[in-house]
Amino acid sequence: MITAAVTLLGYAALLAAFGPRILDRARWTNAMPRLAIATWFAMAASFLLAAALAGAAIVMPTEGLTGHSVEFIGTCITELQETYGEAGGLALVTLGAGLTWGLPGWLAASGVSVAFRTSRRRRELRRRLALTGHDRSAGVAILDSPDPKAYCLPGEGGLIVVTSAAVKLLDESGLAAVLAHERAHLVGRHHLLMTLAQIGRRALVWLPLFSRLPDRIGHLVELAADDAATRRTPRLILARTLFELAASRTPGEALAATGGDTVARIERLLDTPTGPGPAGIGSILGGSLTAIAMPVVITLVPVLTTAGMACCFI
Asked: Model confidence over 4-24: pLDDT tens digits?
């Protein structure tokens, strides 16, 4: 099983280092942002699964599966120390335990930290909005401010905030485009995707796959919201609206109409990218499923091989 563990760790390292480069160079991601989001998270899930299974493979060597297959973990530790020496066995046990239990625990702790911080900031922003006073019209909060802004705050049914300056700046069609974009964020629960990406970066920021995840997901959810908005408003109107609001700044805990790479979004609206055909989509989905299944396959191969050999000697 040590061979399987080394293979899994090598696979995880290649995925973390080169997976982002492959997706960054892919042309189809701008055309199909939702599929790109799924692919990014599939790579992240594959890495985590490979790391956890590598840890399990280290502390459960193949020798521990022959004969009496159900043994206590102490037996596996003893066999590791007998095979690799006292220090080597202890190091392998520590590594295996860290990958199998420490990594999920660290992710959970990072999740609690990110969720608490995000919730606190959103509550503070809502409190400030309540103190400044705002009028609600058609489910939208109109905030008196000289800075043209438009953003949404998830939670408590969702809140779309548009400043009075933005209302004055935009015409009726532009305002409708902004509202459609923000409603798409709320309906799509894009804040949950952003939270998952932020948890990954907080826990594994030294890995390119996770350090880039929030920026990539942040841009892709904006593209997805643009696509949803263009089902109700012309693309040129949304592009013009983004241009008019491009100079505005919004709170970091909010999902803004001008989030992501605004210039790239405007160019995309003006020149609609061509996505892959059905065969291409099938290949992309198949690749994502393969990436998730690969760690399981790598782990099962030596297990099934050992089980088959044991059966031959019965």
From this structure: 888 999 999 999 999 999 999
